[in-house]
Amino acid sequence: MNLLTIAYKSIRQRALASSLTALSVALGVMLMVTVLVIYGLVDDMFRRSGTGYDLVVGPKGAKLQLVLNTIYRVSQPIENLPYRFYRELKEDPRVGIAIPVALGDRTELNAFPIVGTIPQYFTVEYMPGKKFGIKGDLMRDPFHAIIGSTVARQNGWDEGSKFKMVHAGTDDHVHDEEFTVVGVLGRTGTPDDKTVFVHIDGFYLIDGHDKPLGEAVRREAEFFGEEVDEQALQKMIDEEDSHDHHSDDGHHHHGIHEAQKEVTAILVRTKKPIMTPMFQAEMNEGIQAQAVNPIREISWLMENIVGNVRRIFVVLTALIIVVSGVGIFVSIYNSMADRRREIAIMRALGARRATVFSIILSESVLLCFTGGLLGVLMGHGLVFIAAPIVEARSGLLIDPYGFEPLELVLIPALIILASLVGFVPGMTAYRTDVAKTLGD
């Protein structure tokens, strides 16, 4: 009969106490596995969402806020940039792709964010080697829209569905203009799944999305450091007033001067990676706008804020596992008083001190190993159950079969912990006085 068999039978004699101590280890390991896997998947999702473009160009301000608003559609826009700035940036010989985005409004149903952009947005890889899958067509009319997979599922929309926008702000004003869904995106596991994209030309045609011409021209001139010809401006204002009209399709169309168009940010991919740092430095040295590397900002966020939260959870769960180890120590140590005679008989029958010591140590290792293995299975089971719930509530695609390399350290660490925990009870068994114990 080998040592593990003897240890197992000894554990069975104290089935209730042993089960509870193993369960406490399992719960601690389950929590740690869940924290590690969920964090790893969320970290991967955040980093994956920002890999489609080299830079995000936007107004001067908080870099992280610019990335969160533009890429992840959370937080508020810093400010807007003149459309002319986008047009000139697009002509820069170092820029390969420049995609304008205009944000702010949301859908009337379920309040999904709305992004005004151009059809080219969907022809660019949203991450290396990954292209958008679209059921339907691209936006070819100012009042066409493409919706993310989560939007389609939760709102029950498909090709041909119509919707209206809710104006950004606190007034909850619903615009009169209607957009028609012409395409539905396949799942990407990015914020695009929870976004409604409309043609940027239609975005500008919505009543209230353009500033008064006079204010817009003066604002653009200030941005570029130019002077305004007030007489020419007044003539333009008079001409605009005379051209406002309503079209037969029910949309309110009015002449839009370029100065009245603004973009929230510009997604940029340079022609060559080597050009990116120089272009970014040049942009940031100016006073008009800033260029931000989305991966760098998200890495900072995940490491310094979210990462610290993860470390706290990992430390807490590690303490739970240590406390469980102490529970195993107490369970085995308290049983030693009842097992002194049993140990003495084993010694009298020829068992060596080292053998007795190894049996006690094996019990501790067996309890920790069993609890740890059960905890790993429970942790992944919890992730598997939580994955569809998290996806439904947040839109994050959680891989139910996700795995973190750090999990490979857990079982060896538990065996080391078990060895430390079992050492004192093992030494107690090792030092058992056979003659005195049998005489008592």
Detail the topology: elements first, then pairings.
Layout: H1 3-13, H2 15-49, E1 55-58, H3 63-72, E2 81-82, H4 83-90, E3 95-107, E4 113-117, E5 134-136, E6 144-147, H5 149-155, E7 162-166, E8 174-185, E9 196-199, H6 200-205, H7 213-224, H8 230-243, E10 245-246, E11 252-253, E12 262-263, E13 265-270, H9 275-285, E14 290-292, H10 294-348, H11 353-394, H12 407-430, H13 434-439
Parallel strand pairs: 4-9, 6-8
Antiparallel strand pairs: 1-13, 1-14, 2-12, 3-4, 3-7, 3-13, 5-8, 6-9, 7-8, 10-11
Helix pairs in contact: 1-11, 2-10, 2-11, 3-10, 10-11, 10-12, 11-12
Can you characterise this structure?
Helix content is 55%, strand content 15%. With 440 residues, the protein is α+β, with helices and mostly antiparallel strands. The chain has two domains: 3-46 and 299-439, no CATH class; 55-210 and 261-292, no CATH class. A six-stranded mixed β-barrel has the order 3-4-9-6-8-7. The longest helix is centred in the last third of the chain and has 55 residues, at 294-348. It is elongated and about 115 Å long. The two termini are 28 Å apart.
